[in-house]
Design a protein that fits this description.
7-stranded mixed sheet; globular; Rossmann fold; alpha/beta; 255 residues
Amino acid sequence: MGAQDYFSGVQTAQNFEKEREVWRKKYWDSTESQRLGSELLKNLDEHHYTYHWDWLGVPIIKLPDDIMVLQEFYFQFKPTAVVEVGVARGGGMALASSLQDLSKIEKHILGIDLKIFPHTVEALNNFGNSGMKLVECDSTSSQSEDAVIEHISGHKRVFVTLDSDHSHDHVFRELELFGRLLPHGSVILVADTIIEDFVTPNTQRNWGPGNSPKSALNEYLSKNSDWQIARNWSRRAAISESRDGWIQKISTSPI
């Protein structure tokens, strides 16, 4: 086969994008693919697979597929104000910092958690203190509300990740608070909706099927028509902890 024959099969950028969108939508609607992804994740969870990864030296409790989706989201949506609820070891904050830098957005990130550990602060020091703020409080408290109001003031493209207490009642209260505070167009990622599909073996946590981020999200969406699932982000990853967990406050049309 000559070079001309080989390259004749290469699509134009426009045609490639059209075909890729068809592939994506077919995958989104494939219940079998979703089921297989959940089954694999159950197996991986036995090995604590989510905890295996670092982001630039900082432990990040996220799956590689979900990190890739976040990269695409930041580049397209370009959030100017980011709120990370549930800081843990700092990986989510480190990732947000990197993605804002790479997307040429001025760094503006708020981290909220019940406890901010010294090792987390130390890890994040490598990313610079400018533009990053940590607040130690309950994410549904008045202190949290005041911090968020100050942080998002004047911003129209706000992104929030809810990744703390995964019980139904707590996530629902978070959604009520942030759903009220955020401007139209804002996006919330409700982490660990996968909990609704299976119980982690030997877990000591106070959540599981029927008492999970997904059950809270379903209730919230049933009562708030100005928020809806952004399927193109919620169904992008095959191995994901947050399937159908991306929502946007709608004024015109979803992202």
